[in-house]
Specification:
- The protein contains 12 helices and 9 strands.
- With about 425 residues, it is an alpha+beta fold.
- It has a 5-stranded antiparallel β-sheet, with helices on both faces. A two-stranded antiparallel sheet has the order 6-9. A two-stranded antiparallel ribbon has the order 7-8.
- Helix 5 runs antiparallel to helix 10 and helix 9 runs antiparallel to helix 10.
- The longest helix has about 35 residues.
- Adenosine-5'-triphosphate binds next to strand 1, strand 3 and strand 5.
- Adenosine-5'-triphosphate (ATP) binds next to strand 1, strand 3 and strand 5.
- InterPro entries: Kinase-like_dom_sf (IPR011009), Prot_kinase_dom (IPR000719), Ser-Thr/Tyr_kinase_cat_dom (IPR001245), Ser/Thr_kinase_AS (IPR008271).
Length: about 425
């Protein structure tokens, strides 16, 4: 009996000592964690953002023009170890999206309980939202009953989490809660290009602005094609998917149909009627040159102020009969321009557009070619403007341009058009 009591006393004492030791260790760990919040949370979102670009001419990973910011209210992604694409409840997988996740209730508040509707897309409504930091964003709510919407959501978050460029509408957050899926984008104050081209209550876009927009879009696409690794095709370039910011700079939006380049003969046809590459329709192989085709249609929209649904391409084909490869396109100019355009520029851009919609994809220019040609057109314009403004003799301006290379074209228009001439099939 006595032996049992001693054993009990020793056992209890050892247990108490171990308990005290464990409690001390736990308290110490907790204190350390409070002192340095990074401990135990090393998988911060930014650390897992997948870098994607290496070589795009105008590409950048700088987020300065997006609204992603540390001040944004964010909720931790369950210690950043849930991967929504595998199901939000799955644990132990590091998020690869690198995109902040917002709480449903915060978005509900930011959109005044989803009453600030700014538009309706194929997969659900879009709301304007003011976050508690004051920043304005656009919240796209995906329809809960849409299987396609779910797929689009997964694609968009994964893609946009690693794609950043000043000519793309960058994704700045998402919400996956209560069965709802939402995408949060940089807010584009001036809405879609389509609304400016076709809404009679809006001031018509000037010719110069149209060409600037064309170059912005070309740069966004060039980034997707040549800057992103692996490369990305957009699959739905059209004027309603081009958004304009406060200063009328254009950005490519709606990556709902975006995919890394897929070549599958069995995939269903996707895209928007009127912008679809005929070669893609017959072969079912969507390539970068299919985006180039849609971009060509967009260039003709900018020139003619007509939608493909209003017979734009038939109109273009008629005009092409009179066009001689470099000129003769003026008859398709948008009447809202009231003749205010540079004829040479219009012919250049129409020639580029016509090459881009060539039925044979191999005869179409690349987005890089198009960026080069459009930027040369703008450089030429700037050069002419400077020359006119200063009313200086050409020789003097050319001399001064050597010291200031920016506004002076590196290649003449003729050179840039000639570099594309082997693609001509007019
Ligand atoms: N980031 C944004 N900033 C401002 N407005 C936006 C933004 N994103 C979308 N919108 C507006 O919301 C509306 C719906 O956009 P959404 O991208 O959902 O569909 P869509 O491009 O019009 O059509 P579809 O879904 O067929 O491509 C459009 O009018 C668009 O101008």
């Amino acid at each position: 009996m006595k032996g049992v009591s001693w054993g009990l006393i020793v056992g209890v004492t050892v247990g108490v000592v171990i308990g005290i030791l464990l409690a001390t260790v736990a308290l110490f760990c907790n204190w350390l964690r409070k002192r340095n919040p990074q401990i135990g949370n090393s998988s911060s979102r930014r650390a897992y953002t997948v870098p994607i670009r290496t070589n795009g001419v105008d590409t950048c990973t700088v987020l300065s023009d997006s609204t992603t910011g540390q001040e944004s209210p964010r909720i931790p992604e369950e210690n950043s170890i849930s991967l929504w694409i595998e199901g939000p409840k799955r644990k132990g997988v590091i998020s690869v999206s690198g995109i902040p996740k917002y709480a449903y209730k915060d978005l509900q508040k930011a959109t005044s309980n989803f009453t600030t509707l700014i538009g309706q897309g194929a997969f659900g409504p879009v709301y304007k939202a003011q976050m508690s930091t004051g920043e304005i964003v656009a919240v796209k709510v995906l329809a809960t009953d849409s299987k396609q919407g779910e797929k689009e959501f997964q694609t968009e978050v994964l893609l946009l989490g690693r794609l950043h460029h000043r000519n793309l509408v960058n994704l700045v957050g998402y919400c996956a809660e209560k069965g709802q899926h939402m995408l949060i984008y940089v807010y584009m104050e001036n809405g879609s290009l389509a609304s400016h081209l076709y809404n009679e209550h809006k001031v018509p876009l000037s010719w110069d602005l149209r060409i600037n927009i064309a170059l912005d879009v070309a740069r966004g696409l060039e980034y997707l094609h040549d800057g992103a690794i692996p490369s990305v095709v957009h699959r739905d370039i059209k004027s309603s998917n081009i958004l304009l910011d406060r200063t009328m700079r254009a950005r490519v939006a709606d990556f709902g149909l975006s995919r890394e380049e897929i070549v599958s003969r069995h995939a269903p046809i996707r895209g928007t009627f009127g912008y679809l590459d005929p070669e893609y329709v017959s072969s079912r192989s969507y390539t970068k040159k299919s985006d180039v085709y849609s971009f060509g249609v967009l260039l003709f929209e900018l020139i003619a102020g007509r939608t493909p649904q209003q017979g734009l391409l038939e109109y273009v084909e008629l005009a092409a009969i009179n066009a001689d490869g470099r000129g003769g396109w003026e008859e398709i100019a948008d009447s809202r321009l009231e003749g205010s355009f540079d004829l040479e520029e219009l012919n250049e851009v129409a020639t580029l557009a016509y090459k881009s919609i060539n039925r044979l994809s191999r005869r179409r220019p690349s987005m890089r070619d198009l960026v080069q040609a459009l930027s040369n057109t703008i450089k030429e314009r700037n050069y002419r403007t400077r020359r006119k403004r200063h009313l200086l003799p050409v020789a003097v301006v050319e001399e001064s341009a050597k010291e200031d290379p920016l506004p002076y074209p590196q290649h003449s228009r003729e050179e840039s058009m000639d570099s594309l001439s082997d693609l001509t099939d007019v």
